[in-house]
Request: fold
Amino acid sequence: MQGGTRRADSAALPGGAALDLEHRLSYRFSVLSAKMRRAVYLPEYGVLPSNWRAMAAIGRYGPMSASDVCAHTTVEPDKVTRAVNALMKLNYVRREQDELDRRRVVLSLTPQGRKVYNEIERATRQMELTLLDALTERERDMLGRALKKLEQRADQHVGTKRRPGGA
Reply:
């Protein structure tokens, strides 16, 4: 034991010490994502990061059905329903019957929801530009290519096709 915590024998695990927690892609992406969320999702909006993906899809591609939201994100249907319900309580999203297909329900942003969407989107883009500004043009290009390769490999590994617009 070291410092009250037990350390795994890295040499016995796949990837050895190179894949200890602090070096793992998933951990590093998660830490970076958490830092970005803290900079963008201010409490006065009331939008949880878990609900933002649904709101972002509706704001970017809407009006749309809940199944369309699923197709544009990596969010499962039950979580989309919970997100939409939470966003409706905040008066950011409305549900209406499709006038052309009465069986279909369409989701859209309310005027208040559009205002909050625009504010969060602006803050998100500014944060992203701030981060990307730390990289040279060549490094940004390399990062984009590397991320694309990693996404493709992840898709192969889990046996799924990448959904469009993964917000």
Notes: The radius of gyration is 20 Å. The longest helix spans residues 111-132. Helices lie at 25-40, 49-61, 66-72, 77-89, 111-132, 137-158. Strands lie at 93-97, 105-109.
